[in-house]
Amino acid sequence: MEIENQKYLIIFFFPDKKAEIDSLAAAYIESVKNMVPEERVEHLRKIQSAYSKCKEYSDDKVQLAMQTYEMVDKHIRRLDADLARFEADLKDKLEGSDFETPASRSLKKGRSQKDKRSSRGRGRRTSEEDTPKKKKLKGGSEFADTILSVHPSDVLDMPVDPNEPTYCLCHQVSYGEMIGCDNPDCPIEWFHFACVDLTTKPKGKWFCPRCVQERKKKK
């Protein structure tokens, strides 16, 4: 629900704010010569306020993209796990079912011929030839061999993308709630809430611990 709300906010308000900034800037340039100093200051404040709001929407857009990526990745991993469980269950069922592999058929055929030879001259006795033949699916042996050769671990042991960018002080990939540092020169840029002791997004500008220390040194 939170992602949907952010998506709604970005889709319907972000373009309007950009248009508002363009409109205010054009109006300012057109009439700046005829404005008194107080009007110029007021007009510039409106432009700055609209720009700050636009930047906030831009940060929310990046945050939404990260959350969407994480959500899709989580569902993909869940599907992989479900597929692995399904293959494991199917393997167990095939091993305990009436499917006959080529090896088992050859073994039964050899035993049947041996029983026939040993029973010659001593009357007919019950053998595997007398029992009803087990039902086989068309192409069942090939299907069974293919399924049984699949290991669930092959699905779960998918390699992690080495090109996926890392963030935060922990140098991990994006996950959960994240916040961007308002220092344009911040080398890290994005941080996990938990790593910087945040539970909600603070109002106004926010600087990461590293940039806070750098700002203190410059004072």
Structure characterization notes:
It comes from Geospiza parvula. GO terms for molecular function: chromatin binding; zinc ion binding. By secondary structure, this protein is mostly helical. The chain has a domain at 160-219: Zinc/RING finger domain, C3HC4 (zinc finger) (Herpes Virus-1), CATH 3.30.40. It is built from six helices and two strands; from the N terminus they run αααααββα. It has a two-stranded antiparallel ribbon.
**Contiguous helical run count:** 6
- Main sheet attributes: strand count, strand direction, barrel closure: 2 strands, antiparallel
* Terminal Cα span: 43 Å
Low-pLDDT stretches: 121-141, 147-158
**How do the strands of the widest beta sheet line up side by side?**
1-2
> Remind me, CATH topology of the domain at 160-219?
Herpes Virus-1
Question: TL;DR?
Answer:
GO terms for molecular function: chromatin binding; zinc ion binding. This protein has 219 residues and is mainly α. It contains 6 helices and 2 strands, in the order H-H-H-H-H-E-E-H.
